[in-house]
């Protein structure tokens, strides 16, 4: 095992030396252990690390507030009235949309509710919402409550699609087949870009096309997809999407979220929508008139003043994404997960199972790992890694999620994860494992 680990260490060192994105690690504050060494952080899928520039961009807004007060809405280098316009081009590029199709506002589940007001319209026999089995709880709660809001019963109108018999993951063909057979009953398909527990990335265009073909609306939750995998929202033809910015977009805990509304819906007079004054056309917003005049594009779904101190960190993060380029980030991400998967499968495959798809095109940064011996041993490995300065996360019932983020993770971090996994195997008495084996 010692020879194998040395080979893995040499490979990690070589890949780090060849990494043309290595410089971006210095743009982040890397958490440290008690001994002063860097933590090996693999939780970008849960909370991204803090860009160093965040402190300065927030200080800029605090200074504007202290010096300009209410005039900051209209004056200064970046008036608060124009904050969405500042973020919009880079964000639209990242999700593959036209600028007017995106807006930064609220939080993820709030945006899902606001968008379902417009795009979940149960009528006649078409009343059901289709989601994936084991969806993120917040999505399920939101969908269930929307169904009840329309006076319907979730037990009858919430459909949870699971993988076909003998499979752990849901294939897009499962969705297509279901909609072909049952689409007349489906009012809305709400699907993830990347499934939070398994790390599976979906072909969103196939799902949106299947939904439209059967006459259903379609929306996506991109919480685990944005900044992780390439996106082309406009071209998918979906009706809407929503996402958060605190995971791969590194914008801080509880950061302001984003939304997409396809341009074909922007000028529809028949589409119901909850209104607020910030969704009013900017040309007449401050006339304070009684008539709502919707803003341009996705902005019409806004309700209230933008939270500037929460939006400022997104400026810093989007600048890093633009400088790095999504194509290069995706390339490094694919390399990192391949390195980890090869190390786990070839050396620890008898102990660990990767449930994330093996095909790099069907996954993002995240690998979801199970200890074959079950829940208790899985929790033990998770805790062991934490004591060794390797931070992953645990999802019930038995999954350890690991996400090397290409902006700040190194291949050295990946090697240390593999080394400590091997050490854990040795610590529980499995022959042949451990750094000294």
Give an overview of the whole structure.
It is a single chain. A hairpin with a 3-residue loop joins strand 14 and strand 15. By secondary structure, this protein is of the alpha/beta class. It has two domains: 153 residues, Aspartate Aminotransferase, domain 1 (Alpha-Beta Complex), CATH 3.90.1150.10; 266 residues, Aspartate Aminotransferase, domain 2. Helices cover 39% and strands 13% of the residues. Helix 4 runs parallel beside helix 5. The chain is globular and about 75 Å long. It has a seven-stranded mixed sheet with strand order 4-10-9-8-7-5-6, sandwiched between helices. The protein has a four-stranded antiparallel sheet with strand order 11-12-15-14. The mean pLDDT is 95.
């Amino acid at each position: 095992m010692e020879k194998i680990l040395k080979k893995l260490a040499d490979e990690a060192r070589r890949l780090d030396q060849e990494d043309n994105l290595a410089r971006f690690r210095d743009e982040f504050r890397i958490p440290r252990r008690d001994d002063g060494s860097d933590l090996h952080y693999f939780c970008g899928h849960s909370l991204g690390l803090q860009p160093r520039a965040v402190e300065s961009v927030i200080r800029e807004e605090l200074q504007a507030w202290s010096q300009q007060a209410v005039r900051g809405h209209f004056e200064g280098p970046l008036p608060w009235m124009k904050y969405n316009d500042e973020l919009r081009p880079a964000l639209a590029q990242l999700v593959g949309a036209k600028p007017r199709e995106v807006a930064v506002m609220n939080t993820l589940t709030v945006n899902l509710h606001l968008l379902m007001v417009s795009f979940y319209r149960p009528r006649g026999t078409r009343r059901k919402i289709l989601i994936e089995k084991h969806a993120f709880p917040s999505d399920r709660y939101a969908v269930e409550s929307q169904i009840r809001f329309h006076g319907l019963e979730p037990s009858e109108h919430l459909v949870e699609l699971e993988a076909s018999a003998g499979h752990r993951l849901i294939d897009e063909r499962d969705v297509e087949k279901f909609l072909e057979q049952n689409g007349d009953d489906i009012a809305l398909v709400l699907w993830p870009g990347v499934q939070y527990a398994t790390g599976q990335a979906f072909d969103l265009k196939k799902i949106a096309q299947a939904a439209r073909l059967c006459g259903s609306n379609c929306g996506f939750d991109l919480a685990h997809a944005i900044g992780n995998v390439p996106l082309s929202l406009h071209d998918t033809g979906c009706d809407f999407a929503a996402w958060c910015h605190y995971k791969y977009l590194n914008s801080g805990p509880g950061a302001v979220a984003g939304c997409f509304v396809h341009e074909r819906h922007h000028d529809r007079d028949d589409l119901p929508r909850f209104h607020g004054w910030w969704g009013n056309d900017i040309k007449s917003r401050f006339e304070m008139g009684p008539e709502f005049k919707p803003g341009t594009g996705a902005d019409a779904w806004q309700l209230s003043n933008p939270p500037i101190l929460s939006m400022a960190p997104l400026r810093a993060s989007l600048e890093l994404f633009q400088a790095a380029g999504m194509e290069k980030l995706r390339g490094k991400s694919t390399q990192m997960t391949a390195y980890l998967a090869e190390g786990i499968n070839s050396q620890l495959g008898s102990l660990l199972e990767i449930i994330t798809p093996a095909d790099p095109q069907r996954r993002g940064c995240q690998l979801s790992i199970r200890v074959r011996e079950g829940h208790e041993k899985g929790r033990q490995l998770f805790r062991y890694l934490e004591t060794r300065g390797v931070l992953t996360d645990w999802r019930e019932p038995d999954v350890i999620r690991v996400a090397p983020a290409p902006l700040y993770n190194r291949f050295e971090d990946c090697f240390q994860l593999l080394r400590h996994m091997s050490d854990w195997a040795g610590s529980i008495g499995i022959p042949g494992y451990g750094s000294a084996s």
